[in-house]
Amino acid sequence: MIALPVWALKVSCYYGFITCDTAPGVWPKNTPTVIAYHPPVSTPSTPGSPVGVGSTTIVTSTLSLTASAPISSVSGTASPSTAAASTFVTFTSSASSSNPTSSSPASGATSSSLVLSSTVSSAPVSTSASVTIPSMSSSAISVSASASPTPLSQAAVAADILVIARDAASANVASSGLNGYGIPFTTLIVPSAGVALPDLNSTAGGNFGGIVVAAEVSYDYGGDKGFQSALTTDQWNQLYAYQLEYGIRMVQYDVYPGPKYGASAISNGCCGDGVEQLVSFTDISDFPTSGLKTGAGVSTTGLWHYPATISNTTSTKKIAAFAPATGFSTESVAAVINDFDGRQQMAFFIGFDTTWSATSNYLQHAWITWITRGLHAGYRRVNLNTQIDDMFLETEIYSPAGSNFRIRAQDLSNIATWTDAINAKMPAGSSYFVEVGHNGNGNIENSSDSSNAGWDACGAAIEYDSPLDTPPEWVKPLGTGTNLWPAVPTTYDWTATCTAMDELLAWWTTESNLNKFGHISHTFTHEEQDNATYSDVFKEISFNQAWLKAVGIDKATKFTSNGIIPPAITGLHNGDALRAWWENGITNCVGDNTRPALLNKENPMWPLFTTAAANNFDGMQINPRWASRIYYNCDTPACTTLEWTTTSQTTGTFQDLLAIEKAETMRHLFGLYHDGYMFHQANLRNIDVDPITINGVSAKYSIMQAWVETQVQEFVRLAEWPIVTLTHQEMSASFLARFNRDKCGYSLSYSTSNRKITAVTLSATGNTCTDPIPVTFPVAPTSTQGFATEQLGADPLTVWVKLAGSPVTFTLSTPVSL
């Protein structure tokens, strides 16, 4: 008797290569009994015969090898001269599927394209080369016990993720989450004409630690072919064989339920206009480090999907469900994990688009933590940085017209108290605070205007006629412009007696109040800097620095000294302004994400650095920052709703506005963007406003508080991740560190023994890097080797590894099963 693996036994019985107690063309539900190790007698097949009965074509692939020894076509066993290679016998069907996005036969086979591997030796094989497929008769094939892809007892595997997609846009969607974590990946673009696979292994071992395939890379080929994958059956077989040999996992999304996924579709898809069908996770036990919550439904609007049922309960497990909806009376299957006799696969029956969909950004964390087993280079962190511009200034309000507002001490006291309340709603390990951008001239103006004594103590604040606006990306010629500041004073010279007359400053200089917030300069007067002179900008920076020092704000525990919030995000194409910043110790600022010119086009996780060509100055770091529909010149829901509906030519309520903000912000947070959020002092008004209701609870919230409450409550409904605020200085350093370490070309590999990961090794180009590289562990290493570690709340452990000329290896305290 020959001991075949169960999956090989089933496929051999199914295709009639051996005689079993199940008929050829019938997929065995259980382990079949072998009657004879030779094909059953059958009549010749005819065109149009059912798949798997008599129409099966048996082929062999001729592969180009990375090894120097040549290899010829084989019939299931390797010749002695080719012992350095793995060769494959591939079983394929001559029929194609009619499913909209499926390329497999519509048979009962759980994995329609299976590979039997011949004898494997230690020398590697490249499975990426072009493939020739000569036809062979069934009598040419001999199925032997050694013909299955043998899992390697020991191996080294690069943790790089192979992303396979139809085009660059699809690849970006598939890889955006990996990029958010900082997990290395390789993209393979597959056009409709097909393409060769990359080398799946090499002399060092496996080249990929996981495979992600978007929409089966399928195209509509028209006619009888319909939708088919641009990968050949032989290429799918190579991927499957690689999975089995190295124990790596595959993820597929935007696929049609069928035998390849152990599921059956219950409709042609959902949903039409106006129909909502929520999707939620039902079981995260196979990816616990995801930190996602079960039963938390999210919208599928705009994402076509295929509600399903599980057809193969032996191989398939439901992990996500679609809720009942119009046309669907019961819950249905949205995503599954398959285990096809050792080949592990996760499949989502829904399309993804992380460029606009909060749901796609949310769902991706399941497959990312599953495919990596929670063990990867990179890390996951959610930063919620809310910056409040214009502190100490007075704002002219959009509506009602003709009114002005300046924040009051009691407004800030309520914000400080609320900060404790909102932190209590966040997951363990969270730390949130509000950061404030100060304009010192507003303090002088208020003190000077408060009374005769104020005028006597202060004299005039800095006053000038505001400059004309320029086009946002206008580049100012160096040395041009007209000074707007008065000739005197030439240095900051206001006294403590003057500044203390403003009760708002008295509140801020109380230490407990001061240290409740983060602090940063927003320049002295808020002069817009696109066409400003070097002289004016130098004073804007230096005067505010002097004022911050004089009043004691620079002593705050959360103070940024090397960055600013530019007034109205101006001056970024003004080389004179940037030089004045730099000479006063300012090396970074925030930008505006609504302006593409201020974003890094190479990687959205990187800051932008100014250049002489684009900005007339080299090296200023511009960190991304999100705008919102909470407008700078509004202090109530009615005001900001009116400005939103008017400027956007839309209709809606304040609750509608918050719903849109929630969807966009969840996309940002679950996309792992660390960009800050822009607000203004008028947005903090709360002591004399009408109550705002958030999720059924009413309170006297400012519109900024209402925004934060909305985001936090939605986020904690979906995930257990800690929410962390950074100071501007820390945020800027984090962006720079991400940029620097990405340039190091780091990678992670893991060592396996007896189908378990026992150790991981971090390396980089030259095995050096200016900044530490994060490595995330689902289980602790036996030693962190003196490197800095971080573990907040329920998040996994991150070790920040400083490479100094050699790779660094960590042995796992508990091996991770493949």
Based on helices, strands and strand pairing, what is the structural class?
Answer: alpha/beta
Count the E strands: 43
Give the CA-CA distance, first to last residue: 30 Å
Give the C-level CATH assignment of the domain at 383-592 and 626-635 and 672-691.
Alpha Beta
Average pLDDT reading = 86
Q: Which residues form runs of ≥5 with pLDDT under 50?
A: 36-147
Q: What characteristic shape results from the CA principal axes?
A: elongated
Q: Counting H and I runs of at least 4 residues, what is the number of helices?
A: 17
Strand content: 15-25%
Overall CATH architecture of the domain at 383-592 and 626-635 and 672-691: Alpha-Beta Barrel
Main sheet?
9 strands, mixed
Nearest-angstrom radius of gyration?
Answer: 31 Å
User: What's the arrangement of strands in the largest beta sheet?
Assistant: 31-32-30-29-28-27-24-34-33
Fraction in helix: 10-25%
Q: Tell me the CATH topology of the domain at 383-592 and 626-635 and 672-691.
A: TIM Barrel
Pfam families: Agd3_C, Agd3_CE, CBM87_Agd3
Domain Agd3 CBM87: 157-370
Domain Agd3 deacetylase: 384-749
Protein name: Extracellular serine-rich protein
Report on this model:
Residues 384-749 form the Agd3 deacetylase domain. Residues 750-816 form the Agd3 C-terminal domain. It comes from Penicillium coprophilum. This protein has 818 residues and is α/β, with parallel strands linked by helices. A nine-stranded mixed beta sheet has the order 31-32-30-29-28-27-24-34-33. An eight-stranded mixed beta sheet has the order 9-8-12-15-21-20-19-17. β8 (161-165), α2 and β9 (185-189) form a beta-alpha-beta unit. It is elongated and about 105 Å long.
